[in-house]
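Figure 2 data, in text form.
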Amino acid sequence: MSQAAPSAWEVAIVGAGPAGAACALALARAGVARICLVDPGPATGAAAIAVGETLPPDARLLLDRLGLGEAFLDERHEPCLGSCSAWGSATLGYNDFLLNPNGSGWHLDRARFDGFLRRRAVAAGATLFEGARLVDVAASGRGYRLGLAGGAVLDSEYVVDASGRSSAFARRVGARRTPLDRLTFVYGFFDAAGAASQSRLTLLEAVADGWWYAAGLPGQRLAVAFAGDSDRVRAGGLGQDPQWLAEALATRHLAKRLDGCRFVAGSLVPRVAASFLLDRVSGPRWLAAGDAAACFDPLAAQGLYKALADGLDGAGLIIEALGRGGDLGEDYAAAARARFEEYRVNRNYFYGLERRWPGSRFWQRRQARLELSAAA
């Protein structure tokens, strides 16, 4: 550990994405004075590319709790009017937001959304350490001492791990992932200015060895992804433009959405999407929020909502703990386990609906991976 003089904080939040920024903003609005956000900086390479993330209508309630409802609407993200899917049947079914009391969802410009939340957190009183990467953790007094790359040292009474899938703090204090599943995604991008379909619905289409997803992006662009197993992606050459595009155009419904769109050559981006729960999502004076605590299959479309909800819930527990000067208790961990169990049941149900390809290894694997313990 560096010997640099530490700076003292009530709450240090490792990660400044939606979960971390929401937590910082909620704490600051409640009057917590010494809050810092440790931000490792913008993602680079493939991880920096927007992949068509959608915020559901119910997230409006969370934004209102953060005091951001109207300000978020002023950001004018692209509206998402619902979804359609061919899943368990060749027929396209619809789930639109027309009757949702919270209105439409949004196709996000993710970088702009994250920046919006960070700015609001800082304006409310949080201190942002930009380009700061966590490299060391040690217990210290009533909290923790955090060592950052470059030699900075922070002492904090409470820590929130909002570092995303890396779980950078939680894993340094002994938490481990309990996996459920692992998918490989290959994203491609289209110029949709000339699209025959101007649909503002997300599209999901199951195929024999995986599923396809399409969602709008700002600037009349379209993000399209194939989700499958890594061995199928490698064997099928789906990391290469010609084969990926050929298979996209061989679909029944997605191909119609692509009519009139121009594929952006060389735009393919592979990503791994693991589904897991930490064996410990909280401990003495710390908790993990968002993807740092648990990752869901993108099929669930809950990542951003979960991040905001975790940030708010975590802030509430820390505010209570600061008032009595003690630990966080077990309620947060119990709620996280219950939410993951609800997700697991729903995930199993939806993968169990698709029975058109009984010989497919992809669907056999999804329908076999039903329990955390089985995957581990």
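Caption note: The first helix runs from residue 18 to 29.
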